[in-house]
Amino acid sequence: MNIVDLENPDGVLVQFGGQTPLNIANRLKDAGVNIIGTSPEAIDLAENRDKFGKILDKLKIPVPKWGTAFSVDEALLVAHEVGYPVLVRPSYVLGGRGMEIVYDDDGLKTYVSKAALVSGEHPILVDAFLEDAFEFDVDALCDGTDVFVAGIMQHIEEAGIHSGDSACVLPAYELTSKSRKMIEVYTKELALSLNTIGLINIQFAMKNDLVYVIEVNPRASRTVPFISKVIDLPLAKLAAQLAVGKKLVEMNLESKSKNGLIAVKKPVFPFNKFPEQNVFLSPEMKSTGEVIGFDKNLGSAYAKAEAGAGNSLPERGTIFISVNNLDKIKAIPLARDFQELGFEIMATSGTASLLTENGVTAQCIFKVGEGRPNVVDAIKNGEVQLVVNTPMGAQAREDEYEIGRSAIRYKIPAITTIAGAQAAVRGIRNKIAKKINYQSLQEVFG
Question: What is the span of the domain harbouring residue 339?
Fold first, then answer.
């Protein structure tokens, strides 16, 4: 308000500061400030679970089962209704603060007693957590009448890692035409139903060909500068123009956003500066920056992004592979690809015996807690150059945390999905063949 009193502005845009301005939008309006763009009432429609739930019901858009709770008993009731695992979080928080994936009653009781301190008078949200789902991020512009979908990004990490911490690819790399159309339709319906003027960010998850809405943010997200660079359109500037009355139809955006570029965004973590910090990835955001790799093909873009984030993909050495049961069959051609590139394969017992049965020689090593030397010892001893680990279930995640902690500490690239590992294989192949071309953005866009 001191700034408003000094500047006396015609209006204030609250879309560009993340979650904080959304939380104070109503207070600004009550103080007589003219909010331009998406109104505080529209913001509340997206932030308030009950109001938002009614909009989703009306539009018949699927959403993971969820409930709200103000106490341990209420949270247990909701969790039993939606089924474990659940994603629990305080409402109205920044960067996924206080968010956790919980697998049983004991974990939930511990969580709720802590979360009450963060949530204050707001309820705790309990959502069914979709394990083994693909996650997508969409940024769009809306003028109240028309919607322009700027880009559909696909996360390389599995659902459940904060979107700011997960590597993502634009355009999406594994999406059927039907699902793409569905995501576009849902984005348009939601942007218009929420009375958005300017930018909107929506997160979707896809499991068994069903597209679910996970979260809607009626504001600019951290991916806006990323998409703007890839499609060569200044989305923030365009959103500001929409906020003061310009229309999408005057902008002719569709024709400008097709250039054949593939971009990979990778987060950068500060763990080498904070050796005691808990380093595993979760719904709570940990990254402090991002880098982008651009190319005409996915493998090279992924290799560039890894190099930018300080973890160069190896060209020789040993790959550690441990995958969940659903991914085991996909791991066979993946391991074979690594082997054909000259890598040794190290794996946990289940994965190792499957690979060996299928003609891929794999050295067997203990999981964390099974015995010594285990995979963490191998990482510490410099015997592993790349980790491919796709966890599922509570115990697998505990192992993942230990492996992830070691990988980050010893600067070993760690990949948590088969899709990410496939991109890494392509990137390594291009690196070995010296096929990675470097260009500036100016060269790309002329």
Answer: 289-432
